[in-house]
Structure formats: structure tokens, C-alpha cells
Specification:
single chain, 366 residues, 59% helix
Length: 366
């Protein structure tokens, strides 16, 4: 189950700014300035910073609230529309290429890592486990190694993309992160009931249903970039997106929130020291990832990110309760989209596929 959160971690056509970067849309700027909550956003239109200009060209200007008079102004979405997917704009060739890339990656992963007769996966697990006879320590070490490599490469993304290009760096990033993530997941599945039992709640009425619901909800907190499968596979050129709608209105770091919910649910259900150590490591990794993600976005997008940061929050719903984020009346439409329908189907399917996942992990003897 954790694979979605470990690994995890096409904007619509948008109107262009005036051709001259030194001639901002003064009428729109005045409208934004007059808005009680968006006055600070007007400066984004009046400056010619290449970073801000790049964001605004890619952004969506929509009316989150109906404009009843000239005194009211539309909400300027500086970032991108999360989980947007227009079926009519998809290219069959790109998705065929994606299928080929996925097949090749899985074949290489099997030969180089999974197959115990040819791969290094079992040797890696044995080497980590040899440092201690404790499954809790091994679990934390596996997470620490993955987190160091995953977050480390993410922090080097700007430098790496300049040296070898966006697609090559994505291949490097995925090629290193994927086997480490898989090893961590398989070890957790195989050893989740090792260690000392702290509590036993599996027989308590209603606990199973509550745990299932918490896990189901956690997958709706996937970071929106996860849905850009063509970029994940480097079929399309990977980009560092600045998302603003959908789940981002609830929390600026949905991946972290979803991981915390998943960890708490599984720890409550399993109730032993191995589950607790796994949750401790994963939550710590995602807390760092939240800080590091903000740092990287601030470095890449500057004032545009700071404006989004002011009207979003790390703690779910905090910006909404504080009045910094006003949900549009049709907010539900930002979730009635193909990616979330796919997540619903995959999450339900993963639940029923648990026996298959456990059986496949046991056969590896990791």
C-alpha cells in the first residue's frame, strides 16, 4: 500500500499576457488591487521578472466567485489547475510510448533487482538487515536510505537538469528511487507482524471499517504531479509545477497529510513496534519533504510561490478557516475529474489485491 505514497512523490490552454513584458495589463491590475484579499497579487502583473512572467503565462485566470459588480474582482490563480485532464488533447502515440516505457522499466527492474537469481534486491536487504537483528532498526534504515536518496536527488534537480536535461534526470531519479522504494515496501509487508505487540484492536467492532475509510481517504491526498504520468515516465518533458487548485486548497502538502493518515491507520491496525518504526520513519521523511518542497518552490518561483503560500496552509483546512482561502461555489468540480476517478478505482482494487501483494512479497524472501 505504501508504494503510492513513497513514489508519489497538462495544464489547460491559458490566455497569454500582453506581448510586451514591460506593459502590464493595468486594467486587470487595478481590479486585482481593489480586491480585499488579492491586492498583493497586483504586483505580480506589474513586474517583468522572467520567473513571474513564466508563471502567469502558464496560469489560469478564472472567476471563483461570480462578479456582481465592477467593485468585485476575479480570483487570480497564479498556480496551475490540479488534476486537469482533457481527453480530447491526449495523443495516442504518447500513451503507446508510455506503455512501452513502462514495460521496459518493469522488465529491467525485474532482472536487475527483483529476480533473486539475477538481481541485487535480496543482497541489498540482507546487507541492511545484517547491521542489526532488529526488524525495527532494519525498517528505519531502509526508509532512511530511500529518503536520503529520494530527497537528495530532488534537491539536486535544478543542477541535474542543467547538466543532463529534464528527461535524463527524471530517468536517473526514477531508476534509483524505484528499487529502493520497492525494497522498503516488500520488507514492510514481509515483516509487519514481527517485533513486539503494543496493542491489539483488530477485534474491536468498527475498527476495520474506520481503518479502511482512513486509508481510502489518504490516497486522495496524492500530490497532483503524480497524475502527470507522461511526465513521470519522461514521455513529456518533466516540469516542476506550481499547483494551486483542488487538494492544494485544503493543504499545500497533500502528500505529507496522506502519508500521515496512512501511517496512523496502519499502525493502529497492526499495533506493533515494526509498524510504529515504519510510521515514524515515513512521517519524518514527509515532514522534511514538506519543508524542502517549499524551499525548492520558493527558489524556483519566488514571489509567485510566496503569494500562493499566503493563501494556503500546511495543516489541512487551516487557510480556509482563517479566511485566507475562499473555496469557489463549484469546488467539488475540481475533484470530479478522471485522475480522481482512477484513484478511486485503484484504491478499491488495491484493497482487494492485498492477498496478491502479500503473496508476491513472501515469494521474494526479503
Amino acid at each position: 500500500m505504501a508504494v503510492y505514497h513513497l513514489l508519489l512523490s497538462s495544464p489547460p490552454s491559458l490566455p497569454l499576457l500582453p506581448p510586451s513584458p514591460r506593459r502590464p495589463n493595468l486594467a486587470l491590475t487595478r481590479r486585482i488591487s481593489a480586491h480585499p484579499r488579492l491586492g498583493n497579487s497586483a504586483s505580480l502583473l506589474s513586474h517583468s521578472s522572467p520567473v513571474i512572467r513564466k508563471i502567469l503565462v502558464r496560469s489560469t485566470l478564472r472567476e471563483d466567485q461570480p462578479v456582481a459588480s465592477d467593485a468585485e474582482s476575479p480570483t487570480l490563480l497564479i498556480g496551475e489547475d490540479s488534476a486537469a485532464f482533457e481527453l480530447g488533447k491526449q495523443k495516442i502515440v504518447s500513451w503507446v510510448y508510455f506503455g512501452v516505457v513502462l514495460g521496459v522499466v518493469l522488465f529491467i527492474l525485474n532482472v536487475v533487482w527483483i529476480d533473486n537469481s539475477t538481481g541485487f534486491g535480496k543482497s541489498y536487504i540482507d546487507a541492511v538487515s545484517s547491521f542489526s537483528g532488529s526488524p525495527e532498526v532494519a525498517m528505519l534504515m531502509l526508509i532512511l536510505i530511500f529518503a536520503t536518496v529520494h530527497s537528495g536527488l530532488a534537491s539536486l534537480r535544478d543542477i541535474g537538469e542543467k547538466l543532463i536535461g529534464e528527461r535524463a534526470f527524471r530517468v536517473l531519479f526514477a531508476g534509483v528511487s524505484l528499487p529502493l522504494a520497492m525494497s522498503t515496501i516488500v520488507y514492510f509487508i514481509n515483516h509487519r507482524y514481527d517485533g513486539s505487540q503494543l496493542w491489539q484492536l483488530q477485534g474491536v467492532p468498527g475498527i476495520h471499517e474506520a481503518i479502511w475509510f482512513a486509508n481510502f481517504v489518504s490516497f486522495f491526498f496524492l500530490y497532483p504531479s503524480t497524475f502527470n504520468l507522461l511526465e513521470v515516465a519522461a514521455v513529456d518533458k518533466p516540469k516542476m509545477h506550481l499547483w494551486e487548485t483542488g487538494i492544494m486548497r485544503i493543504t499545500r502538502h497533500p502528500q505529507m497529510v496522506g502519508q500521515i493518515v496512512w501511517c496512523l491507520a496502519h499502525t493502529l491496525w497492526i499495533g506493533n513496534t515494526v509498524a510504529a518504526s515504519a510510521s515514524l520513519g515515513l512521517i519524518a521523511h514527509h515532514l522534511f519533504g514538506a519543508w524542502n518542497g517549499d524551499r525548492r518552490l520558493a527558489k524556483r518561483y519566488g514571489e509567485a510561490f510566496e503569494s500562493i503560500k499566503k493563501r494556503t496552509s500546511v495543516i489541512p483546512f487551516a487557510a480556509i478557516f482563517e479566511g485566507r482561502q475562499v473555496l469557489p461555489e463549484d469546488y467539488y468540480k475540481e475533484f470530479v475529474r478522471l485522475p480522481y476517478l482512477a484513484i478511486t478505482a485503484l484504491t478499491v482494487g488495491a484493497y482487494f489485491a492485498h492477498p496478491l501483494m502479500q503473496g508476491a512479497s513472501f515469494r521474494l524472501h526479503w
